[in-house]
């Protein structure tokens, strides 16, 4: 399994070959738990390779075996993987149904982090379906639970996405409130990438409120916190009518950045 984990990161096709051998060995002489883990691993390898439909039967086999031997956490993880595969394949109704099934299993294991991730995954589906009321409800659940377990990255991302939904609904003040709260949390992490992302979200929020000076200020902070092609371009675009020389300088830099 350690060898497969290594190959998944650097050579997924080699990981597939190794996992097939592992699965054959497990089926011949392994325990039910070893066979379950081998199937779960094969599902993961297929997922990395983009073979989402092919991954599902392996995950399902793992679910069945973990259920038989009372391994609820591993069963929940495998079910969540099936839900993720169905999300990617566009089977969103089935994905939502499966995500709902895993929540009580994670609750039995007191795995609050996995529950928060599940809420966020469900929210992503509702957002893609433009069911904004349900999306906000589940992002809020994810944010609240993330706060209780001090998972600041998830709390910040949930708040920012909620803000973007409020923006789509033209409730710009609620967007601003979400982003300001997210900034306080992001700054406490010291993660410049995260801070930069929130700065950019605040740039958008102030722009929508027609406070263009404040928007420029946050776009500049986003660029300084996390220099990449996107933050540089956003900052440059806002400089276009204010400082032609600076606009040209930052725009040229945006073309050089990844």
Low-confidence stretches: none
Distance between the termini: 34 Å
- Counting helices, strands and paired strands, the structural category is mainly alpha
State the helicity in percent bands: over 70%
Total E-strand runs: 0
What count of helical segments does DSSP give? 14
SSE order: HHHHHHHHHHHHHH
- The average pLDDT value, as a whole number, equals 88
Envelope shape: elongated
Q: What's the main sheet like? A: none
Strand content: under 5%
Question: Your description of this structure?
Answer:
With 258 residues, the protein is mainly α. It contains 14 helices and no strands. Helix 13 runs antiparallel to helix 14 (244-256). The longest helix is centred in the N-terminal third of the chain and has 18 residues, at 12-29. The model has no long low-confidence stretch (mean pLDDT 88).
Outline:
The protein is mainly α and 258 residues long.
Descriptive keywords:
258 residues, mainly alpha, 14 helices, 85% helix, elongated
């Amino acid at each position: 399994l350690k060898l497969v984990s290594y190959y998944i990161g650097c050579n997924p096709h080699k990981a597939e070959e190794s996992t097939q051998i592992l699965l054959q060995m497990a089926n011949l002489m392994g325990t039910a738990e070893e066979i379950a883990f081998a199937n779960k691993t094969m599902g993961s390898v297929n997922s990395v390779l983009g073979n989402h439909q092919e991954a599902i039967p392996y995950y399902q086999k793992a679910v069945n075996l973990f259920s038989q031997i009372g391994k609820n956490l591993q069963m929940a993880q495998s079910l969540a993987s099936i839900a993720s595969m169905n999300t990617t394949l566009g089977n969103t109704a089935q994905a939502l149904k499966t995500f709902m099934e895993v929540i009580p299993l994670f609750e039995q294991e007191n795995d609050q982090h996995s529950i928060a991730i599940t809420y966020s995954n469900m929210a992503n589906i509702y957002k893609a379906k433009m069911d904004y009321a349900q999306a906000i409800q589940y992002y809020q659940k994810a944010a609240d639970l993330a706060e209780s377990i001090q998972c600041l990255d998830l709390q910040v991302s949930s708040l920012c996405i909620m803000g973007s939904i409020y923006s789509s609904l033209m409730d710009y003040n609620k967007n601003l409130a979400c982003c300001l709260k997210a900034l306080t949390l992001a700054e406490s992490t010291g993660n410049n990438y995260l801070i930069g992302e929130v700065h950019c979200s605040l740039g958008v929020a102030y722009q929508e409120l027609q406070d263009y000076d404040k928007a420029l200020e946050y776009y500049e902070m986003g660029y300084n916190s996390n220099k990449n092609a996107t933050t540089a371009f956003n900052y440059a675009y806002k400089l276009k009518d204010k400082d032609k020389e600076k606009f040209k300088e930052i725009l040229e830099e945006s073309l050089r950045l990844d």
